[in-house]
Write a structure and sequence with these properties.
39% helix
Amino acid sequence: MFSSKEVLERLEELDVLLVKADNTHGDPAINADLERYGENGRSNLPVNIIVPADPDQKLIIMPEFFGAEEALEALEQATK
């Protein structure tokens, strides 16, 4: 979960749905998603993905390590 107050406030403003998946037991649905996102360079956990509301926009696959600034930039990109 994010600890930056600024990021948390922006997520609330945008009415973003946060989803967390636990793949401890190899859930087939999670594995299928990992395969799908793997073509974008990420095929292992953890993976943070921003899905724009506009289905014509590309998914934003975040780097494994990122800070508040990168999160805010990606959120703004997703709202355009």
